[in-house]
Amino acid sequence: MSDLFKSSSSPADMASRKEALMDSVRSEVALANAQELINKTNEKCYLKCVPKPGTSLSSSEQTCLSRCLDRYMEAFNICSRAYIGRINKERSGSQFQ
């Protein structure tokens, strides 16, 4: 990574390296967000749906967990679509400035 910003690089080469680095950072952030979502949903849904932990889950606990996780995923997908739409709108707006 030390040669990422060498002064001998052309402006186009620098721009492509910068974009590659930004893509890598975006991917890492997306992965971290997905892991956080999984951890939070597991924690929140478990606390909500399993009041007395035992050796197995009852059918009502399984149903509760399934519905809880579905709600979290649905909310995450809605937020993700809105965020991606905003990013795309900002990108397309900056292309014409």
TrEMBL record:
It is a peripheral membrane protein. One of its GO terms (cellular component) is mitochondrial inner membrane. The keyword Mitochondrion applies. Residues 25-84 form the Tim10-like domain. GO terms for biological process: protein insertion into mitochondrial inner membrane; protein transport. Gene3D superfamilies: Mitochondrial import inner membrane translocase subunit tim13 like domains. Keywords: Chaperone, Disulfide bond, Membrane, Metal-binding, Mitochondrion, Mitochondrion inner membrane, Protein transport, Translocation, Transport, Zinc. It is found in: Mitochondrion inner membrane. The twin CX3C motif contains 4 conserved Cys residues that form 2 disulfide bonds in the mitochondrial intermembrane space. Mitochondrial intermembrane chaperone that participates in the import and insertion of some multi-pass transmembrane proteins into the mitochondrial inner membrane. Also required for the transfer of beta-barrel precursors from the TOM complex to the sorting and assembly machinery (SAM complex) of the outer membrane. Acts as a chaperone-like protein that protects the hydrophobic precursors from aggregation and guide them through the mitochondrial intermembrane space. Belongs to the small Tim family. This is Mitochondrial import inner membrane translocase subunit. It comes from Pleurotus ostreatus. The lineage of its organism: Eukaryota, Fungi, Dikarya, Basidiomycota, Agaricomycotina. The gene is TIM13.
